[in-house]
Design goal:
The protein is of the alpha+beta class. Helices cover 23% and strands 38% of the residues. It folds into 4 domains: 127 residues, Immunoglobulins (Immunoglobulin-like), CATH 2.60.40.10; 94 residues, Sandwich (Immunoglobulin-like); 99 residues, Sandwich (Immunoglobulin-like); 68 residues, no CATH class. The protein is built from 8 helices and 26 strands. Strands 11, 12, 13, 15, 16 and 17 form a 6-stranded antiparallel β-sheet that branches. Strand 18 and strand 19 form a beta hairpin. The termini are far apart.
């Protein structure tokens, strides 16, 4: 087998040299000034699944360096594996680690050295991996790491005496074991590599991961590996147009938000606005520079009242400009914002005008003032239906006066009000009776019992007095009724 491998290797080297530099092989052989010799040394650090292959470069002449490597294969196999190549600049020992070997297996290894087209082999050496009944697993380096995802890798190296084993990963934030998470179990019937994708990671964070295996009630864990997720990718350059605020009849505040810088250090933001339907004539606000995503605003004035406007927010960074959606607002009607002049001052001005200009013969001073108040009072729309003087109820005043006359009939004391029938001045005939009564009273004054009886009569008269006087709803009549009362 060794002769076959050497013949194939020498033929391959010869063909490569002949294609690259015709005559180089014969030239090299003729020169005879390059010499390289290598020896294969016994393997070291042999375990059930790994070993360290060693060799010794004993001769190196006519070249500045030599390339060395190993071929190894399971005994009886015709499918060799090659290690990585080392470049050495001087003679001496060299070594290369290999893994993923099968337990309790004999391997053949041979060292190779090459310099300036000259090749030498060190001879075959064998070693046997350890035999084990223990369940073993390895944690391999994490791959495909992003800001929130990664691929965890492991190697089930030995099932021991079990027919199958289950494997999974434990992972957590470094220094905080309370964040421990586990992947789903995977089942294997023979040693093999395995992996699991995770997507619940925090950005820019270091994690610890460890492979675990279980079989026949026993468990094993690999070494701990660490990895760090990427930082968050910067948000793309973006801007949003927000609703306008503080809108008046001639001014407003435009609002926007810078949502991302797209990796730039800063961005310039501003607004563009125009009368709705007249986009050919736009106005730009002053520009503002922001170092981070944030809200921004611009106050504008000099607007037309009761007018619809459109506006849009812009942002520029590193030569790229983006815009938000177009928003609209309508300025207030300026008449809505006018503050009425103090009504009392208006009445005063009117009175002064009457005094200065005189009063019409047909209308009294009070009537003119009353008419002005009713016509201009800001609260006139809220007055009750019966409010106002009667002469304004209709054009000729007749119906109004008639209704007020009717109302006047309801005012004043009721028909039963006034002194009782026995009250008031007496007739001449009654005077004589009074004289007689006076004489009787003089006689009764001498008698106490009669005085008591008279006291009771006086009490009755007092009760009658209580029924006299105006009723509860009585009161002074309106001005219109004064003339009737005088009559």
């Amino acid at each position: 087998m060794r002769t076959t491998k050497l013949t194939a290797l020498a033929l391959a080297v010869t063909m490569v040299l002949s294609i690259v530099a015709p005559g180089a092989v014969m030239g090299q052989a003729a020169a005879g000034n390059t010499s390289v010799d290598v020896e294969t040394e016994p393997a070291t650090n042999v375990t059930a699944t790994s070993a360290t292959l060693t060799g010794n470069l004993t001769t190196l002449t006519g070249a500045d360096n030599a390339s060395v490597y190993f071929l190894y294969w399971a005994a009886g196999s015709d499918d060799p594996s090659a290690t990585d190549t080392l470049v050495v600049e001087a003679t001496g020992p060299f070594s290369i680690d290999i893994a993923a070997l099968d337990p309790n297996t004999t391997y053949v290894v041979e060292a190779y050295a090459e310099a300036n087209g000259s090749i030498d082999t060190g001879g075959e050496v064998t070693f046997t991996t350890a035999q084990t009944d223990e369940l073993t697993v390895e944690t391999r380096p994490v791959t495909n790491v992003t800001n929130t995802t990664a691929t965890l890798n492991g190697n089930l190296t030995d099932l021991g005496s079990a027919e199958n084993a289950t494997v999974r990963f434990h992972y957590w934030i470094e220094g905080d074991h309370s964040t421990l998470r586990v992947t789903d179990w995977q089942e294997f019937e023979s040693p093999d590599r395995f992996s699991a994708d995770v997507d619940d990671l925090e950005t820019d964070t270091t994690y610890v991961v460890r492979a675990h295996a279980e079989a026949n009630g026993s468990d094993a864990a690999g070494d701990r590996e660490t990895f760090t997720t990427d930082a968050d990718e910067p948000a793309p350059l973006g801007v949003e147009t927000r609703s306008a605020t503080d809108v008046s009849d001639d001014s407003a505040t435009l609002n926007g938000e810078l949502t991302g810088l797209g990796g730039a250090d800063n961005a310039t933001v501003w607004f563009e606005y125009w009368v709705d339907g007249d986009a050919a004539n736009t106005t730009n606000t002053a520009k503002t520079t922001l170092d981070a995503p944030d809200e921004f605003e611009a106050s504008i004035d000099g607007l037309d009242n009761d007018t619809a406007y459109e506006y849009v927010a812009h942002a520029r960074a590193d030569g790229t400009t983006v815009s938000g959606d177009v928003e609209t607002f309508t300025t207030d009607d300026e008449t809505d914002n006018e503050t009425p002049r103090n009504f009392g001052l208006q009445v005063a001005d009117f009175i002064h005008g009457l005094l200065d200009g005189g009063i019409d013969d047909d209308e009294t001073f009070g009537q003119l003032v009353s008419q002005f108040v009713l016509a201009n009072n800001p609260g006139a729309d809220n007055r009750p239906d019966h409010a106002g003087p009667p002469w304004l109820d209709d054009d000729d005043g007749d119906e109004g006066n008639e209704s007020d006359d009717d109302a006047a009939d309801d005012r004043g004391p009721p028909e039963h009000a006034g002194p009782p029938d026995h009250a008031g001045p007496k007739d001449d005939e009654d005077d004589q009776d009074d004289d007689a009564e006076d004489e009787e009273d003089e006689q009764e004054d001498d008698e106490e019992d009669d005085n008591d009886a008279e006291d009771e009569e006086d009490d009755e008269d007092d009760d009658e007095d209580d029924d006299r006087g105006p009723p509860e709803h009585a009161g002074p009549p309106d001005d219109d009724d004064d003339e009737d009362d005088d009559a």
